[in-house]
């Protein structure tokens, strides 16, 4: 097989589809990651995200997902917005400004696989975007696309961390990129110091059960725990604090992906606008938005929580959105 030609084709397909970066690693079992994941789960840092405990063997072994897998292709797609929310608007994580990234990237992966089969032949493979037991960040590092920062995010040395990660596992041998071997976080602790709920621990461990994104998106309870009161700043859906303070994100540039263009309501809705919004209007406006994951009742719960009198203590240097 002409692995060099096939590799060039695959990277050209990725670029043509709008992906910002593409790296390729050999499909192997991730034994070191298996140990870290098991320790993280045993410590209960996944909170009530029970799905994290499922399919452990599939998470660490790509050949369990694609029999005969030879290569793991990792793709990065920038979502950094060109616009910011209006001052005083309830905070929404930047990844949720536009269309649901699952839908945007799934279509790209479908076309990607079609082109591979068209140009290379019958290649078995599966594409994933945050929807299956795949350790995307580990594969990104192995593919030479960056390192894992202290906040648990993948950091690309020339572009920061505002990227979605997609993975395509195929049974095609390719030329493999060198793993990213350096860690450029150094002694910086800005993300640890800025985390409103102290969810970022030493040694690149993030306690997911204390993350604002967990409380505002993943947690389906009627109430947010009282010990979190006053700690959310004004984050209503997700949180970008650890990314906003990261020095490497000074390299972030606005996305060129049309699907991630910010909804006007996300940018401009005030607290009063959210409070008078009906469930019917919510479903219509945000029918293609990641916000639908929290559902209308979840958004109402989050809004009520950050609107508590003690929920917005003054901060000397509030994060920039």
TrEMBL record:
Transmembrane segments: none annotated. GO terms for cellular component: cytoplasm. Its EC number is 1.17.99.6. Its main location: cytoplasm. Cob(II)alamin binds at residues 59, 130, 151, 154, 165, 213, 239-240. The active site is at residue 130. It comes from the Bacteria. The keyword Nucleotidyltransferase does not apply. Catalyzes the conversion of epoxyqueuosine (oQ) to queuosine (Q), which is a hypermodified base found in the wobble positions of tRNA(Asp), tRNA(Asn), tRNA(His) and tRNA(Tyr). Belongs to the QueG family. This is Epoxyqueuosine reductase. It comes from Dinghuibacter silviterrae. The gene is queG.
